[in-house]
Records
---
Amino acid sequence: MYDFSERNIVVTGAAQGIGRAIAEAFLKNNARCVVLLDWNQEKVLETQKELDPEGNRTLACGVDVSDQEKVHEVFTALYEKLGRIDVLVNNAGINRDGMFHKMTSEQMHAVMNVNFFGTYNCTAEVIKAMRDQEYGRIINISSTSAHGNVGQANYAASKAAVNGLTRTLALESARKNITVNAVEPGFIDTDMLRTIPADKLEARLKAIPPQRFGQPEELAASVLFLASDEASWVNGHIMITSGATKVV
Ligand SMILES: NC(=O)c1ccc[n+]([C@@H]2O[C@H](COP(=O)([O-])OP(=O)(O)OC[C@H]3O[C@@H](n4cnc5c(N)ncnc54)[C@H](O)[C@@H]3O)[C@@H](O)[C@H]2O)c1
């Protein structure tokens, strides 16, 4: 159990899957306020009701993290309402898989826009205030695919870019008591996993030593550690959370 009772937390892509599990875990660990952002407005409001029926420990909002202007509007409103943001979890992500020689420019740009530029847009909104308040925790959800994965050139490139941003921002921000880390999930049982054809999924399962997919809550546990005060000396780290699955 961690103490987030003084912390305002923003989680992107929080309507379902890993993001939802992260939001729920922060609430279970006493977070002062958890902000759920997602481009699926209907679903994120539904999730908010399920996680916080009274509606006094959460805020929820529909926003596409790749839309820089809208992201700016949302974060401006959040700072007005909350005064400060202590933790940002850049979790929103998509895949548009295909072999590179068949991949369209739209597939490449869509994935880069959400996975990398979405992370950039939200991070750019909090970094100055975190420097001023001399406290911040940024956790980016990357992927083991960052190391290369057939059919995922766009996705792998976007997550490798996230890793580079993570390591560099950690170096630049450490003196201001800000940590910037990433988590690289292996296969986690969410809707994203179900976009992989069944025969390929079966083969992937065989390569996972515990012979099962990870659960969103098991990924959330890594995020909570990195967001905690206890992780103050962990900075610029890319934490593989994959049930010992070999990455390359
Ligand atoms: N599931 C896995 O096996 C796995 C493995 C490695 C990495 N990841 C990463 O974990 C993160 C969460 O994935 P998941 O498995 O929970 O997927 P998911 O598809 O179940 O959930 C993703 C959530 O992000 C939201 N979202 C997508 N694009 C958005 C945008 N532009 N703006 C705002 N919200 C947006 C979706 O509406 C959805 O609620 C992603 O960054 C993904 O790349 C997942």
---
Amino acid sequence: MLIAVLSAKGAPGVTTAALALALSWPRPVVLAELDPAGGDVLAGYGRGEQAADGLGELSLAARRGDVIARLDAHLLQLDQAGRARLLPGLADPTGAAHVDWSRMAGALDAIGDGTTDVLADCGRLRTEHFPTPVVSQAAAVVVVTGSNLRAVRAASQAIAHLRREEAEPGTGPVAVMVVAPGEPYTEREIGDALAVPVIGALPRDAKTAAVLSDGAPAGRGFAQTALMRAAQSVAADLVAFSASRQAVLAPAWSASADPVDSAGPIRG
Ligand SMILES: Nc1ncnc2c1ncn2[C@@H]1O[C@H](COP(=O)(O)OP(=O)(O)OP(=O)(O)O)[C@@H](O)[C@H]1O
Ligand SMILES: [Mg+2]
């Protein structure tokens, strides 16, 4: 399954949220950094120890027509077990103008063949060269929002925009994920206001977020932090949500191994 994650204007932490979900995903997963503004995971979570232009190089390969065959070679391990892998984003955001998003969407959808899921961090909606075809092809589209009025209003506009202009027939259902709920609105209030399902929430947890966004030391209790425990629950709910919506199109699959329980280095 291909699942698109994006943010509206003013929303906090879409990349952090997508990475937390990928590390907590109950099945093999690829986190694809498609933000046209560039990739952040290698510099942040990966502490800059490895440089790779996964999406940029892959999009060059795509022009030669062999994108699916080459995709695997561009994936890096996000955890020790290698169950979560990363397609690093653009090292140079000017490359976004040259990415054939339709081809990329097809290739990512092809990895999501029933055993591996793809979480696509699409960045902020309405950014220039936004990967609209990926959103259109996704089994589910998750809009990340904060919980204050400004963020919820931006999420509402984003959802209307997705429905009105971006979405093509067949686009997966839209759901919302709240980062830092209760500041001041609750998940329920936000769901009611936006009239879309709230797939879950990630609490404000600056220490754990810094591990994910900036490569701060993880420590032994990383998997048990409020943020990672919430991510585990949201990941499971998001798999179920997306699969139920996709059920009419694809055969049922069965869940596999346990969620990742520790942070690990990025490996090629
Ligand atoms: N749940 C959270 N609790 C506390 N801080 C958070 C949380 N999520 C993200 N942050 C912090 O917010 C900042 C921005 O996070 P992140 O890079 O994930 O945002 P983004 O929406 O992907 O931004 P960009 O538009 O630059 O791609 C980081 O410093 C990160 O540590
Ligand atoms: Mg980001």
